[in-house]
Amino acid sequence: MNTSLHFTPATAPNAHTCPGSFIVFEGGDGSGKTTQIRLLADALRQKLKKVTVTREPGGTKIGEKLRALVLEHGNGEIDAHTEALIFAASRAAHAHQLIRPCIERGEVVLCDRYIDSSAAYQGAGRGLGIDTIVDLSRWATNDLTPDLTIVLDVPLAVSRERAGARGAADRMESESDDFHAALSDTFIQRAAADPARYVVIDATGTLDDVHQRVLDAVSAPLGLGA
Questions:
Q1: Strands 51-55 and 148-153, sheet pairing
Q2: What is the DSSP string of 143-207?
Q3: Cis (ω within 30 of 0) for the bond into 57?
Q4: Contact 167/29 with Cβ under 8 angstroms?
Q5: Shortest CA distance to 99 belongs to which of 53, 152, 64, 160?
Q6: Is the pLDDT of residue 78 over 80?
Q7: Looking at the domain assignment, is residue 198 inside a domain?
Q8: What is residue 85's three-state secondary structure?
Q9: pLDDT tens figures, 203-215
Q10: Is 87 part of any domain?
Q11: Exposed, middle or buried: residue 96 (CB in 10 Å: 0-12, 13-18, 19+)?
Q12: Which of these, 110, 113, 123, lies nearest to 42 by C-alpha position?
C-alpha cells in the first residue's frame, strides 16, 4: 500500500521562476561537498558573479539551532519521524528566508545538501519512504527546486576514511555501513531518474581533478565560458 503523503505543489516542478541560479551538492559524508563548493564559489567570484554559500540543515538562525539539535549527540531520543520533521522545518526556513531571496536578487546559491539528502537519509535510510519525504519537503519549500544538483560519488570506504579524518562523528555519520550504502544508492538512483537536472561526478582523485569536473558541469548553465 502506498502510504506517501500527497501535497499539491505551489509552482511547477523544476522551476523556481527567479533570475538567479540554485545549485545543490549532494553525496555521502566525506564526499568532498564542502571543499568543492568553496572552490566553485571562488571560481565564480572571479567571474564577478554574486555567490551565496549555504548548507543544510542550517543556513538561517533557526536552521542552525535545529542543526545542532538533530546532529549533535546528547539531545535525547530523536525518532525517525521527529528527525524528518526537524529537517523539513530547517529547510522551510532556509528556502523562504535565504535561498529564494538570494536567487530573486540574481545571485548564484551553492547549497551543501537539500531535498535529496532527506530522501536518502530519512526516506531510504530511516525507511520512511522516499516519496513521502520528498513531498513533505516540496510542501515546506513551496516547491523550490534546484536548477542543477551535483552528486559527488565516492566509494563507501573512501567516504568513511575522509569523514573519520575530520574528527568525532555526528549522529548521522555514526550510522552503520549498511545505512550509508543505502544513502549512496539513493543519490545515484535519483540522479539516474532525472538526468536533465542531475550530474554525477566521480569525486575520487585530486581536489583539482574533481574541481575541474565540477566546472565542466556548471560551465554551460552559468556561462563560465563567456
A1: unpaired
A2: S---SEEEEEE--HHHHHHHHHHTSS--TTTTS-HHHHHHHHHHHHHHHHH-TTTEEEEE--S-H
A3: yes
A4: no
A5: 53
A6: yes
A7: yes
A8: helix
A9: 998 999 999 999 9
A10: yes
A11: middle
A12: 110
How far, in Å, CA of 125 to CA of 186, rounded? 9
The alpha carbon of residue 61 and the mean position of all alpha carbons in its chain are separated, in whole angstroms, by 18
Residue 67 domain-assigned (yes or no): yes
Residues ≥6 apart with Cβ < 8 Å to 86: 57, 66, 69, 70, 78
Region class of 66: left (phi > 0), else alpha (psi between -120 and 50), else beta: alpha
Is the distance from CB of 6 to CB of 178 less than 8 angstroms? no
List CB contacts of 206: < 8 A, sequence separation 6 or more. none
Specify the CATH number for the domain of residue 60: 3.40.50.300
Q: Return the closest-CA partner of residue 84 out of 49, 57, 104.
A: 57
**Predicted local distance difference test score (pLDDT) of residue 176:** 74
Instruction: Count structural domains, the chain.
Output: 1
Place of cell 538512483: 189
Overall pTM surpassing 0.85 (yes/no)? yes
H-helix segments, the chain: 33-46, 61-71, 80-94, 100-104, 115-118, 130-140, 156-165, 177-193, 207-222
Residues 6 or more apart whose Cβ sits within 8 Å of residue 70: 57, 78, 83, 86, 87, 90, 171
Contact 9, 140 (CB under 8 A): no
Q: Decide: 110 and 37 in contact? Cβ < 8 Å.
A: yes
217 closest CA partner among 49, 59, 39, 95: 39
Q: Which domain holds residue 212?
A: 21-220
Q: Does residue 107 sit within a domain?
A: yes
- Judge contact between 156 and 181, C-beta under 8 A: yes
